[in-house]
C-alpha cells in the first residue's frame, strides 16, 4: 500500500508529489504516457493574472495569490534541484481600447494587480513567464515519488491508500474512482486544444510580453520566441495544422513585426483541461480523494498554489 497515489505526472501532479515528499510522505505517481509529456510541456508558460482575468471570478483570486507564490516556489525548486529555471518578470503590454482599458484597470487594481494605463492599452508590471520544461526537469529531480510511466490508471479504490490525487489533466474524469466501494463522482473536464508556434530569434529582441486578446508573444532567455495560441473544440485530435500556425504568426506579427518574415522552427499543440466550474483544487467530501485538475489556460501559473494547498491538507 502506498501512502498517496497521484494519477497524472504533469506539472500539477509533479508539484504535488514534490511537496508531499518534502513532508516525508511516500508517493506513487502514475502517468498514462511520460512524465510531463502532455499539456504541461506544451504550455507557453505565461504568468499573467492581468492579461487573463478582468471579471470577478474564483480564477482572478487564485491567479493573484498564485502569482505571489511564484518567485519563492521557483527559487526553492531551483536551489533544491540544481536546475536553472528560466523565470522572468518582464511585464506585459496588453493592447485594448481606451474605455476597456480604464474599466479593466480599475477592477484589476482593486484585486491587487499592478496595472498602468498606456497610450495603447495597459501595462502589467508583475506579469512574466516561466519555462515549464525547466520546471518539469527540476521536479523530476527533486520528487522522491515512485514514478510509473506508461501506466494508465483506469479503476482506483481510494481506500487502499492514505489519499488519492486526481491530476490527470484533460483526462481526469475518465478515471473510475471508488471510495469503500462507492463510486466517486468526478466533475466534468474536456480538452481544449491549443496550437503554438516557436521561432529562434536573437536573445533579448523582445522586451516585455505583448498581447492582444488571446494573441501573445513572449521570448525565453535563449531567444526562443513563442507565439500563441488557439482555443479549439477538437477533442483529443493531435494533428498540428500549418495553416493554423500561419494564422497565429499573422496575428503575432501585428504585435511584433519582426515575426512577419520569420520561419517557425517548431509548431505544436496541447490539450488544456477545461472544466466549466473549475479549477478543482479540493477534497471530495466524505472521501480521501483529492481533485487537482481543470486548470485550463492557467495550470502553469497555478501549480505552486495547487501543490501547496493539496499537499498541506493531505499532510495535516
Ligand atoms: C497552447 C497552450 C498554451 C498554454 N499556455 C499557458 C500559459 O501560458 N500559462 C499557464 O499557466 N498555462 C498555460 N497552458 C495551460 C497549462 O499548460 C495547463 O493548464 C497545465 O499544463 C495542466 O497541467 P496538468 O498537470 O493538469 O495536465 P497535463 O500536463 O496534461 O498532465 C496530466 C497527465 O495525466 C496523464 N494521464 C492521463 N490519463 C491518465 C490515466 N488514466 N492514468 C494516469 N495518468 C494519466 C497524462 O498522460 C498527462 O501526463 C497552456 C496550454 C496550452 C495547450
Proportion of helical residues: 25-40%
Q: What string, H for helix and E for strand, traces the elements in order?
A: EHEHEHHEEHEEEHEEEEEEEEEHEEEH
The strands making up the biggest β-sheet line up spatially as 6-7-5-15-16-17-14-18
The overall pLDDT, averaged over residues, is 97
Please, could you describe this protein's structure?
- It is a single chain.
- With 316 residues, this protein is α/β, with parallel strands linked by helices.
- It has a domain at 4-87 and 129-189 and 275-315: 3-Layer(bba) Sandwich (FAD/NAD(P)-binding domain), CATH 3.50.50.
- It has eight helices and 20 strands.
- The chain has an eight-stranded mixed sheet, with helices on both faces. Strands 9-2-1-11-20-19 form a six-stranded mixed sheet, covered by helices on one side. A three-stranded antiparallel sheet has the order 3-8-4.
- Helix 1 (11-22) packs parallel to helix 8.
- It is globular and about 60 Å long.
- 47% of the residues are buried.
- Flavin-adenine dinucleotide binds next to helix 1, helix 2, strand 14, strand 18 and helix 8.
Give the helices and strands, then pairings.
Blueprint: E1 4-7, H1 11-22, E2 27-30, H2 39-42, E3 46-47, H3 49-52, H4 58-81, E4 87-88, E5 92-95, H5 98-110, E6 115-118, E7 121-124, E8 128-130, H6 132-142, E9 146-148, E10 155-157, E11 163-166, E12 176-179, E13 182-183, E14 190-200, E15 209-212, E16 215-219, E17 224-228, H7 242-255, E18 266-274, E19 280-283, E20 289-293, H8 299-315
Parallel strand pairs: 1-2, 1-11, 2-9, 5-15, 10-12, 11-20
Antiparallel strand pairs: 3-8, 4-8, 5-7, 6-7, 12-13, 14-17, 14-18, 15-16, 16-17, 19-20
Bound molecules: flavin-adenine dinucleotide.
